[in-house]
C-alpha cells in the first residue's frame, strides 16, 4: 500500500462575483476530481488552524506532521535546500538577490537587470569566502534561478535574529543589518552580514561577467543582498518519523527544499516551471513512475500554477489551470493499492492576490475509507463530507493509520 | 471593512419536552436571524473546547483570542475593570458583598438587606485604607450595583492563591481566609484579607448610613466579604494584538470588564439592564452609531437577557427575549461593509439553569464568505453549515483574515 499527498498550491479561493459568486474550483470542469470526491471521503482542512494565513512552506511543514511554530524561522533554509545545498541543523540561511549598486553605494536595480546568465561564475567567486575577523565561519553561496541566490553561514555562535540587508526599494543603499535581540550571537551574525555585503561589492564590481554586462549596457550583478533569514531546524527525517521511504515531486525551490530538509528523495521533472505553463504531462509521467517504483511508499506532490494565477489575480487562467490539473488526477487515480489524498496548501483568492486563512477541500481515496455523499470537489461541497473539518497536522496521522504504518498509543 | 461579533449571552439550549423537544431558539420566531443564516456561513462553535462549561468571562476571553487557561484566574479583575477601576497587571482583585454582621460576629444577611443606596459613601470610608502592618499595600475599594463591591490590592508580594471570606450561608461568621499554597505571598495576602474584613466591620458598624438603616429597620452594610479572587493578567491590548480600534457594547460589569482590560472603548447604553427587561432599542441605536463611527473597526456586543432567563429557568421568557433580539439583528444586517458574526458565549439550558458545555450556533456574514445551505439559525441546523465545528479561539483569526488584517505565517 502506497500513499500520495498531492497538493495543488493555492487552489482554494473565495466566491467571485464574475463567476456568479462561485470559486474557480467550483466553475472549473473537473470530472476526475469530482469522481475522486465521489469515491473518496471529503472534508475541509485548515493547513495550520482556522483563519491562520499559511505560507506554502509552513503549510507543507504542517501537513507533513511537523509543527511550523517550532521548526520554521524563515524561508532561507528551505530555499537553500531546494537548490541542492546540504544544509545542516544550526546553519543560518538567507535568500539573496544579485543587485546593482552604483559608485555612491546606492542600489539602482534590486534584480541586476534580471540577470539570467553568468550567475554561476559570479557565485563561484563568493562561495567559500573567508571574511576577515570571522575566519571560523564557513560561507556557502550558490546561485538560484535568475537574479536569486542563497547564502548559508555555518559555524559557532550564529543567530537567526538579524534583519534584512535588502532595502526593498531602489534608490537606497543596502540596509544595515542589525541584531534583533541582545545576544552576542545576533550581534556577530549582523556584523558578518554587513561585512559580507560590502565584500560582495568589492569582489564583484570588476568581475569579468559584470564588466561584460556593463559593456553590453546591462546592469551588473555587483552586490549581494541577503534577506529571509532562517535557522536550519533540527528535524526528525520524514522516513524515520513514519517508517516510509519518501519521494518529493515539486516544482519550486521552496517545496523542493522542504522535501530535501525532511530527507525525501527529490525527483526533478523536466519542464516543471512552477507556473501555469508547466509541463503537466511530464509531471504526470514522473508521478506514475515514482508510484511504480517499489523504493517509494510515500510521494509528496506539489503543483504550483494555481497559486501563481491567484497571486497574479488571473481568474480565467486559474480556472483553466485547475482543469489541466484534472487530467493529472485521472492518471493518478489509475494507480493501484494507493491511498491518494488530494488537497491544497492554502487559498490564494483572485480577490486578495495573496494567501488567506480559508480552509481548503480535501479528499482521501483508498480501499478502506468511508465513502460519503459528496460528489464534487470544491471548497463548498467538501464541507458536507465525512471528514468534517480537520487540520493539516492530522493528515499524516490519518494516512499512516490507513497504511497501517503507525503505532498504537496505549493498550 | 468592519467587524462585529455579537454574542447573545446564554442563548444556546437543549431540547425541551414542553417545546416538542425543540430548543427555545428553534421555536422562537426569528426571521432576521434565519435570513442571516441564509446569506452567511454557519457552524457550531465550542467556546473553549467540546464539553467544557465556559463562563461568560472565559468564553469571551477565548472568543477574543486570549487563552483563558493562561489569563483567567478569577472573576475579580474583570468585575473591578467593569465598574471603571483602572486595574493593572499584578493587582489582586475580589468581588465583595456588603453584608450584615451581628454583635456576635455572625453574618445574618449576606446582602445587607439588598442595600441600594448609600454604598458609595460607605465605600468611600474604606477606599484608600491603610492596614496596620501592611502599609505598603494600596487598597482600592469601590461599590458596584446593589450590595456588590470590588476590592483591589496593589503592591509587592501578593498572591491570588487565597480562599474566600464569604461563608456562602447566613448564620456563620466570615470565613477565615487561608493561603492555598505554601508561598509567603499567599500567606501575606490571606493575612491582609482577614485584617481587611475585621477592619471593615470596625469602620462601618457606626457609619452614618448604617445608623440610619438600623433606625429605619433595615440591615446595615457593616462588613465587607471578599470572594472571586483573581490576579489581573498581563494582557496584550486587543488593538495592539489585531491592529484594529475596538469598542465594546455590553450590559454587565463582567463583560464590560473584559472590554476594559483588553483596552476597548466602553460604550454605555442607557437602560441596558442585562435582564430581559433591557432596552434593546437603545442597544440597537448604540450599535448602529458605533458602526458608523470611523474610529471603530471592531465592535464586541453582548446582550445578556437570554442567559438570565436560562439561569431562572424561564422558558417562555427566553423564547420571547430571543424574538426581541431578532429585531436588533435586522438593524445590524443593514450596516454596509461589514463582517458580522452572530453567536452565543455558551448555552444556559432551561433544564439545567446554569451554563453547559454544548456547542453554540454561529453565523459569519460578509462579502467573501462561502454561503452554505443553512437557512435557519439554531443549535441543530447550524451543525450542517460550511464552517462545520470551530472553537471560540478560531473566531478572531477567521475574522481578521476576512478583514485582511492578519499577517501571513511563512512564504
TrEMBL record, chains A, B:
One of its GO terms (molecular function) is metal ion binding. Residues 1-401 form the Metalloenzyme domain. GO terms for biological process: glycolytic process. It holds the Pfam family PhosphMutase. Residues 162-175 have a biased composition (Basic and acidic residues). Its EC number is 5.4.2.12. Residues 162-181 are annotated as: Disordered. This is 2,3-bisphosphoglycerate-independent phosphoglycerate mutase. It comes from Methanobacterium bryantii.
